[in-house]
C-alpha cells in the first residue's frame, strides 16, 4: 500500500516560518527542538486545532453551539487529517467523588460483579456506588471525609474572652455572638483559654444546645451551645448549600477529617458487609493495583469469569504503563500531570477505534528511565492498531523508537520556526542540528562534588508508602532525589520535608494564578521601570503607559477584547476594533522612548529588550529570564499562554537573587531540550554558589550525574517503595545493589 502523509503547506502559526511538512500516516513521529522552537505551534496550534475544526464542521449548526469553538489556524493548506485525540498533561482534577476507579471505568465493572456475586447481596449495581444514596455512607454522603472546625485556628489559647480569644468572624468582644458566651456566667471572662479546666473547655467548645438565662437578653431563656457545635450547625450541617464565597472565607478555620462513621471508606454498612471471598468493594479499591490483580486471579466464582477477566485486563494495562503502585480509591485530583496523562493513555488504549491521530505532550514526564520502555510499548501498540501517533518529546529513549523525527529550530521564538530535519533516527544522528549534537554526547559523572558538612533533617514519617523515614538534605549543595514513579519522592520532599521547613521555597509547574492582565513584565516587576522611562522621556504621567490605569483603551477597558452577545450563540470574545487588541488608548502610542512606542516595546522578546534598555534593574531582571531559557518570550506575553515548564522557569527567574534559602524543584527539565539542560544546571549551580540549598526531584540522567548528592528512594513504587536506598555522592551510587537508578547513571 502506498504510504500516505499528512501534508502541511505554509504553516505560519506563532513563530512558524511558512513551514511545509509531510508526516507519514500510521507511524510514530516525534517532534524535537529547543523549547520555544515551535513544536507546539505545529502539533497543537496547527494540526490538532485544524482537526478539531474540521470535525466540528461535520456537525449541524445546532450541535456546534455546544462544542468548543475552533478558529482556523494560520496555514495555506492541510491535507489528509484524521480525527485527532490530544492526550496532554492537564491534570485530571475532578471533585472528591472522582477516583482512579471511576475515571478508568473499572469501578462500574466491580459494581456489576458485587451486585451479582457478593454475599449477602442487595440486587442493583447502583447500591454498590458511593455516589448513589443507596450505597453511600449517610454521614459523609460518600466523600469519606467531613469538614470540621479547626479549633486551633478558631481560638487563640493565649487570650481570654475579653481579649478576643474567639477568632471566628463575628465574634469580637461586644458583638451579639460574643455575648452569647461571655454573658452566660459559665466562664471567667478574664481567664486565658489555655488556663481553662477540661470541663470549661468542653463547655466552651462542645456543649450540646441547652437553655440559659442571659442578662443582656433581658434574662430571657436563650439557647447556649459550644462554639464547634454552633459553627457546624450554621455552616456545615445545613441542608442548604452555603455559598462558595462564604465557605471560602471560612476555609482557614476548617479542616477535612476522615469520616468517623465509615472511617473514610465512603460506603454504608450494608455495602461494606457484602463480600466476595472476604473482600468488600471497598477492600478491593484500597489494594494496590498489582496486588489486586493477584487477588482476583485466585477468585473462583463460577459465571463471573468474563467480568473478572475484563477487570484484570484493564488493571494490567494500568500496571503496564507503570501505575501498578496506585489504588482505585485514589482521588484523581491528587494525580500529577504525568500520572494523569498515563491514565488517559490507557483509557484510549482499550478503545478499538483505528485510523485516529493521537497527539502526546512529553509523555515521559515523571517516568524513571527504567520505565520509559513501558511508554514506548504503549506508543507502538497504538500505532500497530492502525493509528498515527505524534509525540512532542525530549527524552532520548523515546526519540529513538520514532519511525520519523521532525526537528524544529534552529533556536527559539523568532530564531526558530523552521524544520531543521525530517526523516529517520539514524540519519538524524549524522546531521549537525542541536538535537543531533546532544543525542551524541553525554555529560560525565560529577567526581568532584561539593563538600557536605551539615544537614537539614525532617521528622520521620510513614505518610502514604513511606517506611518511617526522614529526609536528610546536606546544606549548601545541590541534591537530587531519585527513584521510580510512586517510590515516594514527592511525598517525602513535598509533603514531609517542605512542611517541616516552611521557609523552603517550592518552585512548581502550577499555572501562575493571575488575571488576564498579567504578563512576564508585570510578574517580574519591570513594568514600573518601563513606564518611568516613557514618562521621563516625554514629561508626562507614568500612569498613561499602563493599560490598567490612565492608558487603557476606552472601548475595551484595557483587556484588548470585547464580548459579543449574539442570540443563539455562546458569548464570543473578539479583538477590540479600536485598539486592535493592543489594550492602549491610541494617543498614548504617540509617546516614544528611543524611537519605540509602548506597544512596540511590549512586543519585544526578552532578547531584544535586553539590547534596548539600559536601566540596571530592568536589565538584571531580563537577564534572569534569559538565564532560565526564556529569552524567546515577548515581555508582554500573557502568563495564561505559558506551559507548565515555562511557568516553573519564570518562577525560578524571579527567585534568582538572595542566598540562604532552601529551594525545591520538581522535574525542572520538563519541556526542556537536551541543550537547555546545561542552562538549568548552570542556574542551579549559581544558586548554590550564592549560599542556597537546592533540592531537585528529577529523572533526567544528565542532571542526576551532575549533582553533588543523590538521595535514592525505592526500591519500587507503592508499598514496595518508601525506603531510602542510597544517600551520598553520585560516583558511589553504583555500589548500591538495590538501587534501580544506579543502573542508569
Ligand atoms: P515549543 O513547543 O517548541 O516549546 P511553541 O510552539 O510553544 O514552542 O512556541 C513557539 C513560539 O511561539 C515561542 O516564541 C512562543 O513564545 C510563541 N507562542 C506560543 N504560543 C503563543 C501564544 N498563544 N501567543 C503568543 N505567542 C505564542
Ligand atoms: P513519586 O513522587 O516517587 O512518584 P509519590 O510520593 O507520588 O511518589 O507516591 C508514593 C506513594 O504514595 C504511591 O504509592 C502513591 O500512590 C501514594 N500517594 C501519593 N500521593 C497520595 C495521595 N494524595 N493520597 C494517597 N496516596 C498517595
Ligand atoms: Zn462516611
Ligand atoms: Zn481596545
Automatic annotation (TrEMBL):
Molecular functions (GO terms): ATP binding; ATP hydrolysis activity; DNA binding; nuclease activity; zinc ion binding
PANTHER family (UniProt xref): UVRABC SYSTEM PROTEIN A
SUPFAM superfamilies associated with the record: P-loop containing nucleoside triphosphate hydrolases
Name of the molecule in the record: UvrABC system protein A
GO biological process: DNA repair
Main location: cytoplasm
Family membership: Belongs to the ABC transporter superfamily. UvrA family.
Keyword line: ATP-binding, Cytoplasm, DNA damage, DNA excision, DNA repair, DNA-binding, Excision nuclease, Metal-binding, Nucleotide-binding, Repeat, Zinc, Zinc-finger
Pfam families recorded: ABC_tran, UvrA_DNA-bind
Taxonomic lineage from the root: Bacteria, Bacillati, Bacillota, Bacilli, Bacillales
ABC transporter domain location: 1-441, 450-740
Originating organism: Robertmurraya kyonggiensis
Subcellular locations according to the entry: Cytoplasm
Amino acid at each position: 500500500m502506498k504510504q500516505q502523509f499528512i501534508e502541511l503547506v505554509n504553516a505560519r502559526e506563532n513563530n512558524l516560518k511558512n513551514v511545509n511538512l509531510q508526516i507519514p500516516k500510521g507511524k510514530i513521529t516525534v517532534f524535537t527542538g529547543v523549547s520555544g522552537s515551535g513544536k507546539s505551534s505545529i502539533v497543537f496550534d496547527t494540526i490538532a486545532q485544524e482537526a478539531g475544526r474540521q470535525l466540528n464542521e461535520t456537525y449541524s449548526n445546532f450541535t456546534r453551539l455546544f462544542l468548543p469553538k475552533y478558529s482556523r489556524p494560520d496555514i495555506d493548506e492541510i491535507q489528509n487529517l484524521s480525527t485527532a485525540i490530544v492526550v496532554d498533561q492537564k491534570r485530571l482534577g475532578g471533585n472528591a467523588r472522582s477516583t482512579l476507579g471511576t475515571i478508568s471505568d473499572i469501578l462500574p465493572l466491580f459494581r456489576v460483579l458485587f451486585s451479582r456475586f457478593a454475599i449477602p447481596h442487595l440486587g442493583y449495581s447502583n447500591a454498590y456506588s458511593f455516589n448513589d444514596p443507596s450505597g453511600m455512607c449517610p454521614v459523609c454522603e460518600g466523600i469519606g471525609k467531613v469538614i470540621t472546625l479547626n479549633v486551633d485556628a478558631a481560638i487563640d489559647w493565649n487570650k481570654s474572652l475579653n481579649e478576643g480569644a474567639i477568632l471566628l468572624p463575628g465574634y469580637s468582644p461586644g458583638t451579639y455572638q460574643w455575648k452569647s458566651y461571655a454573658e452566660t456566667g459559665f466562664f471567667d471572662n478574664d481567664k486565658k483559654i489555655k488556663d481553662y479546666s477540661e470541663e470549661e473547655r468542653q463547655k466552651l467548645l462542645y456543649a450540646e444546645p441547652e437553655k440559659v438565662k442571659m442578662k443582656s437578653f433581658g434574662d430571657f431563656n436563650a439557647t447556649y451551645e459550644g462554639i464547634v457545635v454552633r459553627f457546624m450547625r450554621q455552616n456545615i450541617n445545613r441542608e442548604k448549600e452555603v455559598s462558595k464565597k462564604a465557605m471560602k472565607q471560612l476555609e482557614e478555620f476548617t479542616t477535612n477529617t476522615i469520616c468517623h462513621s465509615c472511617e473514610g471508606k465512603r460506603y454504608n454498612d450494608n455495602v461494606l458487609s457484602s463480600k466476595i471471598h472476604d473482600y468488600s468493594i471497598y477492600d478491593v479499591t484500597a489494594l494496590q493495583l498489582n496486588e489486586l490483580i493477584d487477588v482476583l486471579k485466585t477468585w473462583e466464582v463460577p459465571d463471573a469469569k468474563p467480568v473478572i477477566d475484563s477487570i484484570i485486563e484493564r488493571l494490567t494495562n494500568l500496571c503496564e504503563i507503570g501505575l501498578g503502585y496506585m489504588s482505585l480509591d485514589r482521588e484523581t485530583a491528587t494525580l500529577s500531570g504525568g500520572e494523569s496523562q498515563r491514565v488517559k493513555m490507557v483509557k484510549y488504549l482499550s478503545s478499538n477505534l483505528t485510523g485516529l491521530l493521537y497527539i502526546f505532550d512529553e509523555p515521559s514526564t515523571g517516568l524513571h528511565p527504567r520505565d520509559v520502555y513501558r511508554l514506548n510499548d504503549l506508543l507502538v501498540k497504538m500505532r500497530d492498531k492502525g493509528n498515527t501517533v505524534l509525540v512532542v518529546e525530549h527524552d532520548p529513549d523515546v526519540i529513538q523508537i520514532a519511525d520519523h523525527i521532525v526537528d524544529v529550530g534552529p533556536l527559539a521564538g523568532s530564531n526558530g520556526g523552521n524544520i531543521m530535519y525530517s526523516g529517520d533516527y539514524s540519519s538524524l544522528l549524522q546531521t549537525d542540528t542541536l538535537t543531533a549534537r546532544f543525542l551524541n554526547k553525554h555529560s560525565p559523572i560529577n567526581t568532584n562534588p561539593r563538600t557536605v558538612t551539615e544537614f537539614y533533617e525532617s521528622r520521620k514519617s510513614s505518610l502514604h508508602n513511606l517506611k518511617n523515614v526522614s529526609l536528610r538534605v546536606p546544606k549548601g549543595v545541590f541534591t537530587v532525589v531519585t527513584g521510580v514513579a510512586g517510590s515516594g519522592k514527592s511525598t517525602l520532599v513535598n509533603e514531609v520535608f517542605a512542611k517541616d521547613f516552611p521557609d523552603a521555597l517550592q518552585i512548581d509547574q502550577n499555572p501562575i494564578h493571575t488575571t488576564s492582565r498579567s504578563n512576564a513584565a508585570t510578574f517580574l516587576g519591570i513594568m514600573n521601570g518601563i513606564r518611568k522611562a516613557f514618562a521621563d522621556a516625554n514629561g508626562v504621567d507614568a500612569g498613561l503607559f499602563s493599560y490598567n490605569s490612565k492608558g487603557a483603551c476606552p472601548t475595551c477597558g484595557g483587556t484588548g477584547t470585547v464580548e459579543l452577545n449574539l442570540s443563539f450563540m455562546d458569548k464570543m470574545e473578539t479583538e477590540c476594533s479600536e485598539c486592535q487588541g493592543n489594550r492602549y488608548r491610541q494617543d498614548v502610542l504617540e509617546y516614544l522612548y528611543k524611537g519605540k512606542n509602548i506597544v512596540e516595546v511590549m512586543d519585544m522578546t526578552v532578547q531584544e529588550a535586553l539590547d534596548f534598555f539600559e536601566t540596571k534593574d530592568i536589565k538584571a531582571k531580563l537577564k534572569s529570564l534569559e538565564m532560565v531559557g526564556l529569552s524567546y518570550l515577548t515581555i508582554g506575553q500573557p502568563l495564561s499562554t505559558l506551559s507548565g515548564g515555562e511557568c516553573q522557569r519564570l518562577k525560578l527567574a524571579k527567585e534568582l537573587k538572595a542566598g540562604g534559602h532552601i529551594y525545591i524543584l520538581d522535574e525542572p527539565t520538563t519541556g526542556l531540550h537536551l541543550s537547555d539542560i546545561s542552562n538549568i544546571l548552570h542556574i542551579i549551580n549559581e544558586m548554590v554558589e550564592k549560599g542556597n540549598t537546592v533540592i531537585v526531584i528529577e529523572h533526567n540522567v544528565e542532571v542526576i550525574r551532575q549533582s553533588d548528592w543523590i538521595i535514592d528512594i525505592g526500591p519500587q513504587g507503592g508499598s514496595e517503595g518508601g525506603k531510602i536506598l542510597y544517600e551520598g555522592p553520585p560516583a558511589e551510587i553504583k555500589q548500591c545493589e538495590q538501587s534501580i537508578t544506579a543502573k542508569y547513571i
